[in-house]
Design a protein that fits this description.
CATH architecture of the largest domain: 6 Propeller
Largest sheet: 6 strands, mixed
Helix content: under 10%
Number of helices: 2
Strand order of the largest sheet: 26-27-28-29-34-33
CATH superfamily of the largest domain: TolB, C-terminal domain
CATH class of the largest domain: Mainly Beta
Number of domains: 4
Number of strands: 47
Structural class: mainly beta
Amino acid sequence: MNTALLRSLVATALSPLAGSILAQCPVGEVEVVIQVTTDAYAYETYWELLPGGAACGNGTIFSGGNPLVGCTGAGAQQQQQGGYGNNITIAEGPFCLTQGATFDIFWADDWGDAGLSFAVLVQGVNVANFVGTGDGETFSFVAELPVARDMSITGLTTALYAFRDEPVRIIGTVASLGSDPVTSFDLNYRINGGAPVVQTVGPVNLEAGDVLEFEHSTPWVPTSSGTFTVEVWASNINGGSDLVPANDLASSSTLVNEPIPNILDQYLAGSPVVETVADSDQDLLVPRDLDFHPDLSRNELWVINKDTEQSGGSTVKFTNVGQTGMTWLMQEDPNNWHFMSLPTGIAFADNGNFATCPGIFDANQNGGDPFTGPSLWSSDPAIYAQPLFGPLGSHLDMLHVNPNSQGIAHEQWNRFWVVDGYNGDIVMNDFRVDHGPGNSYHGDAIIRRYSDFTITRDPNDHVVSHCVLDKTTGWLYVVDNGGQRVLRMDIRSGSVTGPATFGPWESYVEYTTVSGYTWEVIVSTGLVQPAGIDVVGDRMVVSDHASGELIIYDISVVPAVELGRVATGAAGLMGVKLGPDGRIWAVNATTHALLRITPESTVGTPERSDPELRLAPVPADDQLQVSGLGLAGGRVLVEVLDASGRVVLSDLLDGGTDVLDLTALRSGTYVLRGNGRVARFTRN
């Protein structure tokens, strides 16, 4: 029951409403109007306008809402009727307040799940916006007109986790805080304090308080792995300087991983090794999907269990998965019967959150409307599955127009693509700003439905139809279990043609239908019960539940070409995922197993190093001293391989001791081989 967020593509200027009710104040005072927006449960809320630093009820200038809640009613859950109406905006005032003085807005919510937002207008100019969360808060503002030009980055949704050589979109929100309308400005970003990348934005028309969502026209393409600081700011406002530079800059930290190596062709030779890494002894109960935490160095794998409709699903987190000392933790959210009922998929986001999709028709399980769809969760152990956030569990958000969901794929921040098994189509679900653990406001979401083709789910509601997004190309690959095929659609194509007609059962910023997008069938033969899917480069792997096989395809051509199959030894495969080192991981819902599949021999990077081959220094900078190649007095061909097994450098070195020039190599981990000997090293 959170309030309507004060965010939109460009928020509506608030000054006209205030201007019609302004009063004449004495010298030294300014006219202040406070606009209060309620949610669907307005009777739960109460607020007061107070002198700065005063406690509720002490020197109250004005009070509004339900007096039965009062100063001490936050979280009491008395549910007493009274106060404001639902889903409305009320302009309170005008108040004549001392110019330059600080004032507080105290507010409380009876249920403890948020309920009010506030916009403060001074002399008709929006100077502050506050969005309520939780039990209630105290907000402070200064009763003074802003300077003429002032802009601030109010939010960044740039990826916190990314991959080397893959574009990173610079995305966020910028607010106009000055009294002059903004008609143009420069949007800037820089990486690790480097040279700014500048985009001129305009023409626009931003009044004070308006918020603009932006995506910089030039994405950042990291050329090395590691941790980077991203800084974003606005400048050159209407051709002039920002008069409040202290609030200009917003920053975030992005961890860049090495890319997933494409070693799928190595599975086409010999007999790959299938290992059972975990089973029911590690709390796997009908596992349906899996995904790695986006910090790949953690080697942290999450598996989602189907369980039962009444009990709700669960997750098992494996730390150091597949290694000596592996640990696991099974977790169930207190309200998983609703937010994670019969889950079919799990997908991690680039901000550390993850989303799940439910296979149930009615998440309320009361025979009513199909009030069902994907849920958003935090992977923070202090939040996820903790009984700290009230009756709605620890979920961060949930949307409700995707019953019998079959699979889920991440795009950017809190935006996911879902296979809607009930309607047989694909739905983009953008949670946008999550409502926080245990709250319930969904009104800022954007949902778009793609219905030009039909996905047929398993009639027994057991075998999944997963999807995966190639973020570099924009192709979403979708398994059609009932159609025994695989399709792909270009998420960057198509256009909104009107409102969606299924539901909805609650209000969203946008709920529309998209048509005219590009899609095609890429596999139409050879599959019995296709279920899981993953892609890397020009290769795709699909799991077949009926045969227990993993099928590898070349997707550089359409239709895709089947290159080979890997037998896992048992029917029941569902989700499949390529791990940080390129190896295939899968879950089997019949045997309750987590599997790791390894090629019989690696064409690319070797697994063991020769102790006689010595490299120094390690890590290396521009030069690497190589000794122990075994042919003193002769010349030895030396090759350097990257993480995907490609030869990226070769040279003839002295068999005794010689120096290899590394200036052409990026930062990362490599393997050096020569004369049948190998050793790993890291380039700074």
